[in-house]
Design a protein that fits this description.
With 314 residues, this protein is an alpha/beta fold. It has a single domain, classed as P-loop containing nucleotide triphosphate hydrolases (Rossmann fold). It contains 11 helices and 9 strands. The strands form 2 sheets. The chain has a 7-stranded mixed beta sheet, with helices on both faces. Helix 7 links the parallel strand 7 and strand 8. The longest helix has 15 residues. The radius of gyration is 18 Å and the shape is globular. The N and C termini lie far apart (52 Å).
């Protein structure tokens, strides 16, 4: 059965109006963590210029997918917590007005004196907004409902697309990873997230229509790269909500690997009730149920991401 993925075929990507470099995929070197996860190597035409180096720390990664309900915030929280477990200092920037990343880490977003709204709209220093979490080494810059109005308020603002980038640059050396949880849209908040990042991590659910709309996201990444942020590229794709009981899940993973090759991490995150329950307790899965399948999977995803980082000396 052929999945609904025409949006990511060559026909869906017309040549850009001006020359642009190809996306710079990064190979992941890791062993599969479960049976049936064997790597599918990328066809040569999919990865003509695979980046063989490693990423220097600090790394700024935007977690983005214009579809909702694909595990984007869950991935941001749990990858961040798992990286912190590895001894890294991690900042999660919550750009989603729903503030799920904030509440999922135990931060009550109501009544906050400063939030990402104040950082973007009133140019409050980002360091004034950062809150610690119960996970050592993991911090969050919380969102608030006020951020919903920022999409409109940013329209006439000066340098509206790069406000987040300037805020992050001021604190970047204090962290090893900055993960930006973008809203499920392609508005000015997401553009700010893409402008501030060096890399894009895309979670893809292992379901039918998994690649629906992904073509538009990749075109927007290319547009931001050509006009605002030349360093931006899609570096990581994570297959989530994997249900081993269905043949469809395997077909999705296979097709994603065929399209994106080595940018797809070897670890596949399973569908898990415990993953769904953890945010209601304000905890990442690594502390809520550290021995669960979801916790083990996200730890392996974090190890793959961290493996590609050039560690700081001293």
């Amino acid at each position: 059965m052929r999945l609904h993925s025409s949006v990511v075929t060559d026909a869906a990507f017309p040549p850009p109006p001006s020359p642009a470099s190809e996306l710079d995929p990064t190979p992941v070197i890791a062993e599969p963590v479960e049976a049936g996860r064997a790597a599918v190597g990328p066809p040569e035409e999919l990865a003509p210029s695979v980046h063989r180096g490693r990423y220097p720390l600090p790394r700024v990664i935007a977690v983005a997918n214009q579809k909702g309900g694909v595990g984007k915030t869950t991935t941001t929280i749990n990858v961040g917590a798992s990286l912190a477990e590895l001894g890294q200092r991690v900042l999660i920037v919550d750009l989603d007005p729903q503030a799920n990343a904030s509440t999922g880490l135990g931060i009550e977003n109501r009544g906050l004196e400063t939030s990402m709204y104040h950082v973007l709209m009133q140019e409050v220093p980002l360091e004034n907004c950062i809150e610690p979490t119960d996970v050592k080494g993991l911090f969050v810059a919380p969102s608030s409902l006020d951020l919903a109005g920022a999409e409109i308020e940013l329209v006439p603002a000066f340098s509206r697309e790069t406000r987040l980038r300037r805020s992050i640059e001021a604190v970047l050396e204090q962290f090893d990873y900055v993960l930006i949880d973008c809203p499920p849209s392609l508005g000015l908040l997401t553009v700010n997230g893409l402008s501030a990042a060096q890399e894009v991590l895309v979670p893809i659910q292992c379901e039918y229509y998994a690649l629906e709309g992904l073509g538009q996201l990749l075109r927007n990444v290319d547009l931001v790269r050509r006009n605002l942020n030349p360093e931006l590229h899609v570096s990581t794709i994570v297959c989530v909500m994997y249900d081993a009981r269905t043949k469809l899940a395997d077909q999705v993973v296979t097709e994603v690997r065929e399209h994106f090759g080595d940018k797809v991490v070897q670890t596949v995150v399973p569908r898990s009730v415990r993953l769904s329950e953890a945010p209601s307790f304000g905890q990442p899965i690594t502390t809520f149920d550290p021995r669960s399948r979801g916790a083990l999977a996200y730890r392996d995803v974090a190890k793959e991401i961290n493996h590609e980082s050039t560690q700081r000396i001293g």
